[in-house]
Amino acid sequence: MTFKTIAIFGSTGQVGRNIVQALLDCKKKKFHVIQVVLPSEKDTTQQAPNAETKVIDLNVLGQDEVSAMLRGVDVVVSALNGKGLQLQPKIQDSAAAAGVKRFYPSEYGMHHVYRRPGDDEGHIHPTDVDSYDFHIVKDADAKADFTHLRDLGDFLVETLCSPEVSENATLNVVSDHISYNEIAALLVKHSGKPVEKRIISEEDMHGYVANPSMIPNILSAESSFPADFWLQVKGIQGQGRFWRPRGQVHNDLFSDFKSRPFERYFQGQFS
């Protein structure tokens, strides 16, 4: 089985743009990349000889029309998020009807399950600043998994280059397993600038999630995510639960894949 034509939904977002770039940069194979976008996004797609843009309104078109557009496509990648995820079932069903060989759902991250007390049940920031602030919930020594967006794109391309290895598999890629204290130390080492760690108690985190209007502006500024969601993710990290067992991390599955841990990332940013 070989893959040639790749259609990407959500190609103009942070994740989608990195996937498109990884496909265009691939040295092993030359992929034909189709960026499927809404009319409002047509001027923001990436331009390359082996890339094209198809403009459709998924909110209006039916499954048969989307399926017709996907005929001849080998792989569909969904990098949708937010409200766009509501369209993913239509895309997946349309891809199946069109005979698409493989579908990648928009499910690249950890399952963020908020846990109330007593309940049992990855933007590049500016570097030209005088100092850095880290907002950490609970435990700055708790290790968590982090994945660089470029690593996600490169890993996905490796699965397309070796389809027999990745067929019908749930695979995860992790760039680093590290604590915020360790990240802060590396940032000081490579930037030469101080890092101030602001610790938020778990009790305060739960209070903010219950009453988002009480969240201080400093905790929500310059973020595309709602502040309560951001705090939930930070809370799971601080509880030491934001990681996968090593047996569920597949970085070593492809010999040519090289991840970008924080040390390597900071070396590139500040060298």
Automatic annotation (TrEMBL):
Named from the GO MF annotations, one term is: oxidoreductase activity
Q: Which domain of life is it from?
A: Eukaryota
Q: Establish whether keyword Oxidoreductase is in the entry.
A: yes
Residue limits of the NmrA-like domain?
4-112
Q: Which Pfam families match?
A: NmrA
Keyword S-adenosyl-L-methionine found = no
Please provide the record's keywords in A-Z order: NADP, Oxidoreductase
Name this protein carries in UniProt: NmrA-like domain-containing protein
